[in-house]
Amino acid sequence: MNLSPRTYSLAVQRAGGLALILPPDDVVAESPDELLDMLDGLILAGGSDIDPASYGAQPHPETRGTRPERDRFEIALGTRALERDMPVLGICRGMEMLNVIQGGTLNQHLGLELHRHTPGVFTDHRVRLEPGSLAERVVGGEHTEVKSAHHQGLEVLGEGVVASGYADDGVVETIELPDRRFAVGVLWHPEEDERSRVVGSLVSEARDRLKASTP
Q1: Which of 19, 40, 66, 189 is buried most deeply by CB count within 10 Å?
Q2: Catalytic site residue 189?
């Protein structure tokens, strides 16, 4: 069974987009273009921990619930989407996946005082965005209050990955790939905040490109 919190689909729908949930598929992972041809943008969503084998590490005792089939699927889909310069947004695990796709590594267990101090409840904290960054444009300002629920983060940045937002404790909260027109990741959960512009920014980017390519 494949499940996704409905908040993701609702956030896309509020922005005027049509949300499609994609189950892991090893056949599609071998040749993702046919599926990507049907999409205008890609969200790599949150969820369970990424298998440390995906980035050449041994598992930490707190790394749990890994699903290698999902990792294979998202690595293949995300890699090809970036190669095609599609609009890509990574959310929480999805931001971590963007970094892994680019050859980066993860810190498998952060301190939880700020980011997930009460399991099962989204934690509110502040994020500072770099002025002039894509992340600042996506969020709509240099500071934002976010809803967080993660215990992992980035360790080594992948090739071409730039950190562009930070929590008060220094944890990287947003990344982007400047050599792509729209490839950004956020470590928090914008889909849980109806006031957030993040998911809507992806939908707007995809819509603008579709209009520009339509005769």
Answers
A1: 189
A2: yes
